[in-house]
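Worked example 2:
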Amino acid sequence: MLKCFYLKKPALVIFMLLFFSFHCFSEELFPFDEEEFLINSLWQKFGKLKDNDKPKIALVLGGGGVRGFAHIGVFNVLDQEEIPINLVIGTSIGAIIGAFFCAGIPIESIETLSQKIGITDIASFNIFSTFSFIFSNKLLSNEKLEKFINNCLNNADFKDLQIPLICLATDLRTGEKIILKEGNVAFAARASATIPGIFKPVEYRQYYLIDGGVSENIPVNTAKQNYNADIVIAVSAAANIVTHNMSNSFEILMQSVYIQGKSIDYNSVQKADFLITPDVSNIPIMDFEKAKNLDVIEKGSLAAKKVSKNIKKTIINKCWEKLFLE
């Protein structure tokens, strides 16, 4: 009977032989990543969950001047991987890049803006202001930065943003961390990026605001304590203080800020669920050309890709029961 079966079904026999041959050698010829397959399958189910059933994810963006262009690359990867962000909390350049993203500006457009912007777009650098700064100790104005952001965001208010945004600044008089989350977005981002000793403090109510990095450069504590985020992803664009040159008063000032910030940052990032650290530590804070030439955005993308899989796994673990009840 078996002989008869083989004679009558030669095509089926050939198929079975090919199938078992493939099964035996498939792992060698076509490596199969079971974990990757499981994550992708569950991730598709995760995307169908209701928002209330998903963990609240906060993205924390630190300061660092033009090194913070790396934040754009991080946003790009999170967008490609469809990792949802429910809240962005930014300090200094983190507040600025965060504002663009939260306003719904496409990543490609943000990249284009970063390649075009220069020092004259953010501050009043001219012969008169530079002379006054050097010889009269008169601080520079960064009102141009606010105008630049306003033009990009069409004078957006916080309530107009697609994703909630928090900008952090510091009160010069008390050292208190000031949380900005209402009113004009550009004003808040500018205040958050007002480098002390270089730019005039920004007056706001009873405060004199300077860079948020003075009080919390990577605001993980704000995400955890003030907003009860379930998962905190932090991005650090820190300087390498050991190799930082100090040939003028500005660089000496920045080195002092870096030293203070390093201790604060270390304690803060320990509380983050994930820390993304693009390789941008040797780029000076205001060297726009070097940042563009070294493709800082791509460095942000590379750093984010390294942790994207683990971020998905953590998110899945946070809503495991919901995924299997769907």
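Residues 245 and 251 are 7 Å apart (CA to CA). The radius of gyration is 25 Å.
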